[in-house]
Design a protein that fits this description.
By secondary structure, the protein is mostly beta strands. Helix content is 10%, strand content 36%.
Amino acid sequence: MSFHEVRFPANLSFGSVGGPERRTEVVTLANGFEERNTPWEHSRRRYDAGIGMRSLDDVETLIAFFEARRGQLHAFRWKDWSDYKSGAPSADPAYTDQIIAWGDGETTAFPLIKTYRSGVHTYDRPIQKPVEGTVHIGLKGDPQIEGTHFTVDHETGIVTFSTAPETGAEVTAGYEFDVPVRFDTDSIHTSVASFRAGEAPNVPVVEVRV
């Protein structure tokens, strides 16, 4: 899959509408009970990039970005303003935000994850597009130094330590991240008259697996 490591203009994605989507197969039995199953381990997010258009200059920027991606052909980064940090939206990322692994004395590379909790239930979301310069890593409660103790692949979300964390050592992380997406259309319809009347173009964007 072709992926462009470029972010959709964040000022245009601000105000967009979207969020996670799940796929659940529901079978109702003869006795009224249900059997539910899902073929998806991870959710998929959808957005409308047209909602954030506020001027004709914004529309021009959108069209330029769309054309450079060749429509649906090339995927790209998207900032989901409702969920782009490892911790609380009001706080800066900290190395204590997320537990991403436990050392075993041999493994040096660990993928970034974000854990969503509700009561005793959790969901671990893979984070594959961290934002460069925002990743903070901790080991056994101590902050680590990027370039000395670890490196980050910002295209895959893999953190690699220079020395394998010892068995039982808690590996933590804090970061900002983008969502890998593509346009879910090969056409954009705009009208100067309708836009001045307050109508924004419909530009669907959908998350992709990378």
